[in-house]
Amino acid sequence: MTVKWLMHFQPNQGTTLTSQVMAEACAVAESFPGVSRDGRWRSSMTFYRAVPRDQSLPAPSDLPRDLIGISLHDLPNEYLFVMRSQRLILRAHSSVQTVMDKLQSYKGRFFINFEGLQYKWGDFKLRIGKCLYNPNEALRGIVMEVEYLPLSSIDKSQRVMEEFYEIWREAVASKLLAGQFINTEVNFVEYGLGDSYTPQHTAVLYGMCVVQVIASSNKNQ
Amino acid sequence: MECVVQGIIETLHVEALEILLVGLCGAPKQRVRVHELCLKSGPNLVSSEVRLLCDLAKTTPSWTIRHVGGAMRGAGADQLSVLVRPIAESKASSTALRFFYGIGYKLDHEVLKTGFAFQFQNRGANLTVSVTSTNRMPRLHATDDAVPITPGIHLVEITAPAAPENYTEVASAIASFCEYLSPLLHLSKPGISTGIVPTAAEAAASLMSSGGGIKIL
């Protein structure tokens, strides 16, 4: 699997995130020479809650409160779980959701969809998307996934990704968007992940990014 | 959903059973070495049970998460000679055990199943016949030091995936295959023991001396 970076849009202080930002970000991507639109993309995330044996009581504190499940757009037959507090990732076939339903020990508490437009630009694929609460589709953030197709090594791709990030930041600033895109920084080693990029890396990126998106959204409301 | 029957056979007759199965199945024998961990939810969580299966027969161990539901009940189910039950399974990464510990599950017991299996089709159903010894481990996860729980006895299990619209046909396919094994062992619903078959020794001797000679299905 080739390397990805994941960024989220941080609105300027005092401004509110609107769908217009999504349109403006897409316009930035479409201004790049040689870029072509490459369809749509959609990933989804479920925040799980433990179901206590005695449901008249709140969930015990020794059970994780940060269990999330992720279905990635480019791996429809797989499902990943991330527990940030324990630096733990489980990668499984998508049928694991059926197993969790049968166990009934954890239920989906709320759901977020990431969906938007995909672009091809030379060796890069750009996916710009809205971060939407499900089912009311309230906008909580804008994210951009950047994939560098030639490389699977995180170390080897670092420089080219940084160069892209600078190009993107400058383009965004020049179009006067009311904020900036912030890259999601993760210490993959803490999760037991190596230099060779995997879906587990993507799951961790989304797990970290969504925390920042929600925090940013709550701050600006 | 799956259909399942089980039976036992004396270990000294396993070789004869293998000869019979080679002839009947027309499929290659597969080595079985599965570390099965049964986990139960902790006291704070809704009560549930899940099994993790680590296949140690391959070079790289692979993990499966498995949930076994309660047996189908009712007049239709009672009339079947096989047990029908819902099954949910998923292949998973090697972090599966840590994951379930992390979400509040505890290890209830673990066993190591060793033996062999055949996978083949009979009457359109995909059957798996496994012949295994169930072993306990003297220390946590010590699969290399496992010893048989019932020395001298092997478990024979036939399973086949099924769906609500075809489980009676699958059950029939299993039942018909069981007929071929009847000189050596009787298979029935799990939990209903039929013991050792009286003709087993004679049938085994016959198989060992003839080297098989059974018409392939």
TrEMBL record, chain A:
GO CC terms in record: mediator complex
Keyword Transcription regulation: yes
Gene Ontology MF annotations: transcription coactivator activity
Keywords linked to the UniProt accession: Activator, Nucleus, Transcription, Transcription regulation
GO BP terms: regulation of transcription by RNA polymerase II
Claim: Cell inner membrane is one of the keywords in the record: no
Database matches in InterPro entries: Mediator_Med20 (IPR013921)
Main location, first listed in the record: nucleus
Compartment annotation: Nucleus
Similarity comment: Belongs to the Mediator complex subunit 20 family.
Assembly notes: Component of the Mediator complex.
Role of this protein: Component of the Mediator complex, a coactivator involved in the regulated transcription of nearly all RNA polymerase II-dependent genes. Mediator functions as a bridge to convey information from gene-specific regulatory proteins to the basal RNA polymerase II transcription machinery. Mediator is recruited to promoters by direct interactions with regulatory proteins and serves as a scaffold for the assembly of a functional preinitiation complex with RNA polymerase II and the general transcription factors.
Protein name, UniProt field: Mediator of RNA polymerase II transcription subunit 20
Species of origin: Rhynchospora pubera
Gene transcribed to yield this protein: MED20
Automatic annotation (TrEMBL), chain B:
Gene Ontology CC, one term: core mediator complex
Molecular function as annotated in GO: transcription coregulator activity
Listed Gene3D superfamilies: Hypothetical Protein Pfu-838710-001
Main location: nucleus
Highest rank taxon of the organism: Eukaryota
Alphabetized UniProt keyword annotations: Nucleus, Transcription, Transcription regulation
An example Gene Ontology biological process: regulation of transcription by RNA polymerase II
Localization: Nucleus
Family: Belongs to the Mediator complex subunit 18 family.
Protein name listed in UniProt: Mediator of RNA polymerase II transcription subunit 18
Organism taxonomic ancestry: Eukaryota, Viridiplantae, Streptophyta, Embryophyta, Tracheophyta
